[in-house]
Design goal:
It holds the Pfam family GGDEF. The chain folds into two domains: about 140 residues, GAF domain (Beta-Lactamase); about 150 residues, Alpha-Beta Plaits (2-Layer Sandwich), CATH 3.30.70.270. Helices cover about 45% and strands about 25% of the residues. The protein has nine helices and eleven strands. The strands form three sheets. The chain has a five-stranded mixed beta sheet with strand order 8-9-7-10-11, sandwiched between helices. Strands 4-3-6-5 form a four-stranded antiparallel beta sheet. The chain is elongated, with a radius of gyration of 26 Å.
């Protein structure tokens, strides 16, 4: 019996069963918060921060998952198992609420362990605040502020990557250009606030009409684009019909007699960005010449 090891122990405060090393490690984790802080300062990626922090926390508790919820979205560590019991803590820095950090563990966490986690949050606060600020700046640089769609600079980058992949793998893709018919009269008659509402609704229609592999962009004004993974024109036609049908049944669009014209083209590995864009643009003008509220291709 001398060699038998007890694998669980009862936490004295709440009667929670923990892995044999979970509470024991509280007093054996090296007390060197600077080493953790220095590691956290090596990245401005929120998910990367959570990975570093989780690696340290795993020395203290049986950690299955770690998430951070903020106004910038939900972030999590790699291979996070979020199906277990959650333990949620608010993170604040100088009266600024950064968000909530959520631990997922197979075992109940004693009050002592939770207090230890709260202590360690002080190492995470400043790196996390900096990463969130960087995330916001990055979003401003790549996202359209009104609709939340990717902007023109992102389009240029995505198009170049699509072409490079097309040349390597001999795979085709499509470019679709769209604008709104009669949009100017909305701004002229009802003001730019109503025009903004129309644009936001149209962006929502576009995002709900494409697949996860497709990307929607706003160039500015009422001009939009979609990059579509499509070896032929079949998917383009389906997406175009879906968009036009949604616009026809949308209340705000119907109320202001707004429709959409669409032009699209199939890109090949021999194309350059200007050639692809020029063909799709010609398709858009053909749709306009055909009476608008339709889709044409080149």
């Amino acid at each position: 019996m001398e060699n038998v090891h007890i694998l669980t122990q009862r936490a004295p405060t709440r009667g929670d069963f923990l892995p044999f090393n979970a509470q024991m490690q509280m007093s054996h984790v090296p007390e060197n918060p600077m080493s953790l802080t220095e590691k956290l300062q090596t990245t401005l990626d929120v998910n990367g921060l959570l990975d570093i922090f989780a690696g340290y926390i795993k020395r203290i508790i049986n950690l299955a998952g770690l998430q951070f919820h903020s106004s910038e979205g939900v972030f999590q560590m790699q291979q996070s198992n979020n199906q277990l019991s959650p333990y949620t803590f608010d993170l604040e820095l100088n009266s600024q609420h950064l968000g909530q950090i959520v631990y997922f563990s197979k075992y109940r966490l004693s009050e002592a362990l939770q207090a230890r986690l709260i202590q360690l949050h002080t190492c995470l606060l400043y790196p996390l605040r900096n990463a969130l600020m960087y995330q916001r700046v990055l979003k401003l640089a790549t996202k359209d502020s009104l609709t939340g769609l990717s902007n023109r600079s992102q389009f240029n980058e995505f198009l170049a990557k699509k072409l490079e992949r097309s040349r390597r793998h001999h795979s085709n893709f499509s470019l679709m250009l769209l604008d709104l018919d009669n949009f100017k009269q909305v701004n002229d008659l009802y003001g730019h606030k109503m025009g903004d509402n129309v644009l936001i609704e149209f962006a929502r229609i576009l995002e709900s009409s494409v697949r996860a592999t497709d990307t929607v962009f706003r160039f500015g004004g009422d001009e939009f684009a979609i990059l579509i993974d499509d070896p032929a024109f079949t998917t383009n036609k389906v997406i175009a019909e879906r968009i036009m049908a949604s616009v026809r049944t949308c209340t705000i669009m119907k109320n202001h007699d707004v429709t959409t014209s669409i032009g699209f083209t199939l890109a090949t590995s021999k194309d350059c960005p200007n050639e692809i864009f020029s063909r799709a643009d010609k398709g858009l003008y053909r749709a306009k010449d055909a009476g608008r509220n339709c889709a044409r291709t080149i």
